[in-house]
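User: Could you check the structure of this?
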Amino acid sequence: MVINQFYDINDFLSQIENIKKKKNVEYIEAVILWCEDNNLEIETAAGLIKKDSVIKDKIQYEAERSEEHTSELQSHWYI
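Assistant: Sure, the predicted structure tokens are below.
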């Protein structure tokens, strides 16, 4: 399915922000929920995310922050 060529990036970003706020989830979870709601594969959203560096950076930041938090928790358990 080649929907990402025809889907408006601004509409996509707006929907992701709305899902994130309404469901109180991180960006990647909002993207997954958007895909589920629209019966689309995650690859479709990936194509849209690649078009916008801002959301790409937000997803990366959240992933890195989550990794750091996981490392901190693990270091407390492995004394």
